[in-house]
Amino acid sequence: MSSSSLAAGAAEAGGRLLPIWLVKEYYWCPVSAYLRLVGWAERPTASMLLGSESVPRGRIVELLEERHRLRELLWEHPVASRRLGLQGRADLVALTVDGGLVVVEAKLPRLSRRRLWGRDRRLAVQLAAYAVAAEETLGAPLEAAYLYSVEGDRLVEVRVSPRLRRLVEHAARELHGMLERGEPPGRANVPRWRCRLCSYRGVCPHGRG
Ligand code: SF4
Q1: How far is CA 14 from CA 29, 173, 176, in A?
Q2: What three-state secondary structure class fits 48?
Q3: Distance in Å, CA 195 to ligand 1 centroid
Q4: What distance, in Å, lies between the first and last C-alpha atoms of the chain?
Q5: Which domains, ranges and CATH numbers included, belong to the chain?
Q6: For residue 107, what are the β-bridge partners?
Q7: What's the pLDDT tens digit per position in 121-158?
Q8: Taking a C-beta distance cutoff of 8 angstroms, is the pair 88, 129 a contact?
């Protein structure tokens, strides 16, 4: 999708900026993303329940300093992409002496690079959404993006490739489209086990399992 049609999509939805966490939800299940978008009860995830006080900031900085020359640390920093119609608060945006940005999102579970391209891909796409919004907000290029696993005490680098950026754009377009149409997608195409875990099972027309 082109930048101009994305911007048009956001404008048609009243210029509303949607929360970035919906991008992750969209790649969990587009129907549950819709239900959350229109105000059904929250389905809190483990990472949402991770309070900022549980994030070991000092340890994250220690790990980052092994890889980057940091200049300024912006914790819980608000970021927005008007182009995509998304906004959120990144756990950390670090400015580097080389003029770039490093974006970090903390997650509770152990993470592996392999799973980030499989079962946990939504975490990589959400991180990419924060990175794109940080670039637009701060007007600087992305140097690197990481997920920090609290349980694993490690940084996992996610390359914010053109493909990952396209996935962010796709989710933004679909979320704004659903909002504009006022209806969820016709199909969910999610594995049965997700439906079995889902608190929307009782109201969802596409629930399986
Ligand atoms: S029940 Fe299944 S299809 Fe429906 S919102 Fe939940 S995960 Fe999605």
Answers
A1: 24, 14, 10
A2: coil
A3: 5
A4: 34
A5: 3-197 (3.90.320)
A6: 149
A7: 999 999 999 999 999 999 999 999 999 999 999 999 99
A8: yes
How does strand 86-96 pair with strand 70-81? antiparallel
Amino acid letter, residue 23: V
Residue type, 151: E
Query: What are the CA-CA distances from residue 164 to residues 94, 124, 127, 194, 206 (Å)?
Result: 21, 8, 10, 23, 27
Tens of pLDDT, residues 90-125:
999 999 999 999 999 999 888 888 888 888 899 999
Residue 208 alpha carbon, nearest atom of ligand 1: 2
Ligand 1, pocket residues at CB < 6 Å:
29, 31-32, 188, 190, 194-195, 198, 200-201, 204, 206-207
Amino acid at 149: S
For the stretch 43-91, pLDDT in tens is: 555 555 566 667 899 999 999 999 999 999 999 999 999 999 999 999 9
b/e map of 26-50 (b: 16 or more CB within 10 Å)? Answer: bbbbbbbbbbbbeeeeebeeebeeb
Atom of ligand 1 nearest to the CA of 206: 3
Query: Which one, of 84, 21, 29, lies nearest residue 50 by Cα?
Result: 21
Measure 201 CA to ligand 1 centroid, in angstroms: 6
Side-chain half-sphere CA neighbours of 207 within 13 A: 13
CB 181 within 8 A of CB 38: no
DSSP 200: T
